[in-house]
């Protein structure tokens, strides 16, 4: 509700996050208050990995729609290219290959196209797909993916995948745009760029915060949509107010120089899955 009041109209959900009910209630409440209409909102949700068989896709989306109390979503994404068996745990960490399904991503895509044909999803796309996985879909799809939601932040600027997606008019939505501060300290996770003292100093010059500088850079210079997450009202407002300043070239150059090609979100437990996306260069 704070986000809608602050002006956000795009809300990122997923069946797996368990946030669909809360988002549905907030949207319903704000519609009843006359603040928004359903048509003002752009609601995304995602197909979880246990439901990659093509005849499971529409039923899973219908479950999401029930949670959201909506009759369509604006965007429906395959959450990850790798699938798990339906009866496996939803995050089968350390369960090994016995938990994996071998459904091909092109079969799952046929289920997504069915959801689109039925009008339950106004747009369909993917998340965490690499270049060759997108290529594979483009070869067989009747309805093309409109979006790839992937990690993008200054530590992992993902430029080659962004350029590839743009060449097919696929919008890139950048997740973990602030580098997911709560993961900092885990092995291999780089320090979020918003904590870099030089970025903090730079932000003062613009009368902004370092989070606002980072989000402005991602939107204006990498050309991606961003979905920062916050449960803090003041930060929700802060993260929305990023469009009224322009970074100087030397500051852009510095932020570019902080790229380390280091991800926060690796899902490396599933590195032995045939469809694990992050072994390829991009
Ligand atoms: N498709 C996928 O596989 C995938 C994977 C990961 C994430 N996502 C999506 O991306 C969204 C964002 O990713 P994320 O939550 O992992 O990472 P993030 O947005 O980079 O970071 C969130 C963290 O930053 C803090 N924060 C937010 N705004 C701040 C500000 N202005 N100043 C200081 N700290 C701030 C938040 O704290 P508080 O909440 O305490 O304010 C939270 O700890 C998720 O909600 C999800 O929708 C998708």
TrEMBL record:
<dbReference type="InterPro" id="IPR020471">
    <property type="entry name" value="AKR"/>
</dbReference>
<feature type="active site" description="Proton donor">
    <location>
        <position position="17"/>
    </location>
</feature>
<dbReference type="InterPro" id="IPR036812">
    <property type="entry name" value="NAD(P)_OxRdtase_dom_sf"/>
</dbReference>
<feature type="site" description="Lowers pKa of active site Tyr">
    <location>
        <position position="46"/>
    </location>
</feature>
<dbReference type="GO" id="GO:0016491">
    <property type="term" value="F:oxidoreductase activity"/>
</dbReference>
<feature type="domain" description="NADP-dependent oxidoreductase">
    <location>
        <begin position="3"/>
        <end position="259"/>
    </location>
</feature>
<protein>
    <recommendedName>
        <fullName>NADP-dependent oxidoreductase domain-containing protein</fullName>
    </recommendedName>
</protein>
<feature type="binding site">
    <location>
        <position position="79"/>
    </location>
    <ligand>
        <name>substrate</name>
    </ligand>
</feature>
<dbReference type="InterPro" id="IPR018170">
    <property type="entry name" value="Aldo/ket_reductase_CS"/>
</dbReference>
<dbReference type="Pfam" id="PF00248">
    <property type="entry name" value="Aldo_ket_red"/>
</dbReference>
<dbReference type="InterPro" id="IPR023210">
    <property type="entry name" value="NADP_OxRdtase_dom"/>
</dbReference>
